[in-house]
Amino acid sequence: MEKGPEQEAAGEEADNEDSQDAVELKNAGNSADVDSYLSKLSRHLARYYEYPRRARRLGQQGTPVIVFEFNRAGELIDHSLRDSSGHELLDDAAREMLTQAAPLPEVPDDMRGNTFTYALPVRFSLR
């Protein structure tokens, strides 16, 4: 069974020293609000998850980590590959998933911050 972002743990927080006004998602409000938003974000991203056929045929597996920044309206500001899966096809698929998923769900009013950073592990597993 393939595993996408919705099966992954809540993710990791981004190490983002460049953008001082961006709030790490885990610090954007009380834990229930943040968890609720993360669930919504994971479901949204999962709709765009696709395991590349060629990577599957080649038996490639891995978990690239994409770090991204977005605003309250869900507009993607920036994204980059923090950790490679070791396979370019999988790394590219993770980046493509994120760009296709934009705009992301709007951030609820009860969460603080204007921009948010998050590090998303995208698991590609043939099991």
UniProtKB/TrEMBL annotation:
Membrane topology: Single-pass membrane protein
Record-linked Pfam families: TonB_C
Keywords assigned by UniProt, alphabetized: Cell inner membrane, Cell membrane, Membrane, Protein transport, Transmembrane, Transmembrane helix, Transport
InterPro entries given in the database record: TonB-dependent_transducer, TonB/TolA_C, TonB_C
Composition bias, Acidic residues: 9-21
Annotated segments matching region Disordered: 1-29
Biological-process GO terms, alphabetical: protein transport; transmembrane transport
GO CC terms of this entry: plasma membrane
TonB C-terminal domain boundaries: 36-127
SUPFAM superfamilies cross-referenced by the UniProt entry: TolA/TonB C-terminal domain (SSF74653)
Domain of life: Bacteria
Keyword Hydrolase annotated: no
Localization: Cell inner membrane
Family statement drawn from the similarity comment of this UniProt entry: Belongs to the TonB family.
Stored NCBIfam families: tonB_Cterm
Descriptive protein name: Protein TonB
Organism: Marinobacter persicus
